[in-house]
Amino acid sequence: MSALLKAELLKLRTTRTFAALIGSALALSLALLVLSGLLTDYNVAEDVRLLFAGDFTGIFILLLGAMGMSGEWRHRTITSAVLAAPDRLRLLAAKTLSYAVAGVVVSFLITGMLMLIGTIILSSRDQLTLGSTDLIDVMWRNLVVAAYLGAVGVLVGTIVRSQVGAIIGLIVWFLIVESALFGLAPDVAKFAPLNGAPGGIIDVSFDDGDTTLLAPGIAALVMLGWVTAMFAAGAALIRGRDLT
Amino acid sequence: MATVEVRDLSKRFGKVEAVKNLSFDVEAGRVTGFLGPNGAGKSTTLRALLGLIHPTGGTATFAGKRYDELEHPSAAVGAVLEDASFHPGRSARNHLRVLATTGGHPPSRVDEVLESVGLSEAADRRVKGYSMGMKQRLGIAAALLGDPEVLLLDEPTNGLDPPGIAWMRGMVREQAAQGRAVLISSHLLAEVSQSVDDVVVIANGELRAQGTLEAVLGGDDEPETEVNAEDPHALAAALKKAGATVREEGGKLVVPGMTPGQVGAIAAKAQVTVLGLAPRARSLEQAFMALTAERRA
Prior knowledge:
The structure holds two protein chains of two kinds. By secondary structure, chain A is mainly α. In chain A, 79% of the residues lie in helices and 0% in strands. Chain A is built from eleven helices and no strands. Chain A starts with a helix and ends with a helix. By secondary structure, chain B is α/β, with parallel strands linked by helices. Chain B has two domains: 4-217, Rossmann fold, CATH 3.40.50.300; 224-281, Alpha-Beta Plaits (2-Layer Sandwich). Chain B has a six-stranded mixed beta sheet with strand order 5-6-7-3-8-9, sandwiched between helices. In chain B, helix 4 (108-116) packs across helix 5. The chains are: A mainly alpha, B alpha/beta. Chain A binds chain B through residues 3-4, 6-7, 10-11, 14-17, 71, 75-77, 79-80, 82-87, 240, 242-244, and chain B through 13, 44, 47, 50-54, 67-68, 70, 73-74, 79, 81, 83-91, 94, 97-99, 101-104, 142.
C-alpha cells in the first residue's frame, strides 16, 4: 500500500495542474487575508480565528481530486494504473488517501503562511493576535476539511468519470445547491457533503450556541459517513467495470 | 505447464459474443503471433488475460495464476495495449517513475529501459509532444520495466514507420531469445510473419488454427504445382482424366493436390512436352485469408 501511495503522490506532483491549482489556492487565500488584515479592525479573537480559517485549499483539492481520478478515464491511463496495481480496491484506496494526504500537506503550508503573514500584519497595526492554542485549533480544523475534500474529490471522479461533468457538478453543488439548501432547509443542509458537514468543523465559533451547523464531533462522523458511502459506490463501480 | 494458458475463454458484451471458448498456449522463449482480422476478439482476449475485463467463462492464466493473483505483476508480465495512453502533461521519465514506484522497481530501471528503447534524449519531454512511434517505444519501455517473463503486445506496429517496424521485430526476437514468452497480436500477417515462431489464428472470436507458423500457414496441408506445357489443352485433359483439378493462370496450368513429380509422370504418360514444372506454395497471406474467411459465408 505504501508503494501505491507513493506512486499516487508522485503522479500528483508531476503534472502542472497540481502546481497551478495549489498556486491559485495560495494566491486567493493570501489576497483575502492581506485585504482583510489591512482593512478590517480585529478586536475579537473569533474574528481573527475566522481570518486564519480562510484557507482555500479545500475547494481546490476537491477539484484536483475529481480531475485526478476522472483524468485517469479521460486519458485512459486507468488501464496502466490497473495493470500496475490489479487490486482495484487498493488502487482506489491509495488514490483517495493520496489526495487526503496532499490536502493535509498543502493546507498545513497555506494555513501556516496565513497565520504567519496575518500575525505580522495584525501586529503591525496593533490589532489582536492569537495565542498558540487558538492557532493550533484553527489549524487542525483546516487540515481535517482539506483531507476530507481531497478524498471526496477522488471519489466523485470515480463515480462520475466524466472530467467536465465531475468538475461542473461539484462547483454547482458547492456554490448553488448547498447554498440554496441552507436557505430552504438548514436542518438538512448541515448534513450536506461539501459545505454542510465540513462547516461544522470549520465553524470556529460553534461554542457560542450556533445551531445552524453540526457540532464538530457529529460533523466528523457525518463526513466519515459520506466518504464511506462514496468509497463503497466508487469501489463497486471500478471493480465491476470492464476496461475495454 | 505453458507460460500463458488460455482455456475455454469466453466474453460476451451484451448480445455480442466477442470471444467463444478460446483455448491456446504461449511457450517461453518463443514469439507467438496472435492473428485475426479486425474485430476477431484479439484485444478482448489480451484484456481478459490481464484482468482488465471480466471473462464470461473460462480462464486465462500465467503459470497457473490469474493476473490479479500475481504477487509482482509487472515483474511477471509486461503489456503494451493497442491504445496505450499516457497523461499528456507528464514526461516519459515521470510516467516510468510512477510505474517503477508502484511495482517496487529500482529507479535506475527507468534510465535503463529508456536507453533500451532509444528514448533517453526525449525522456524529459512531455508526452503530448511525442510521435506515435515514440509513444509505442514508451509503451514498450513501461512493459520492460519489471524485466518480465511474459510480454503481451497488442498491435504494436500500428502507426510505426518502416524503421520502427524493423526495430519492433528485432526487439521482439531479442526478448524471446532471452527466454521470454512473447505474444504479439496483429491483423496484418505481413508485419509479424518475419518475427513469430508460432501462430494462433482467430476469427469471429473462435480459434481457427494454432501451431508453428510453417504448420499453420506454410501450406503444409496441400501441395500445388504450376506447369507450363507445349500443348496445355492435352495436358489438362490428361490431368483431369487422372482425377486432378486443373485451372489456368497466365497461360500456365495450376494443379492443386499434386506434386511436380505426379504432374510430370502424367505428362510423360500422355506424351506432352513439359516446358516448366514447379511446386507452388500458398502464400502466408492466402493461407491466413482462407483460415479467417472460410466460415464467414
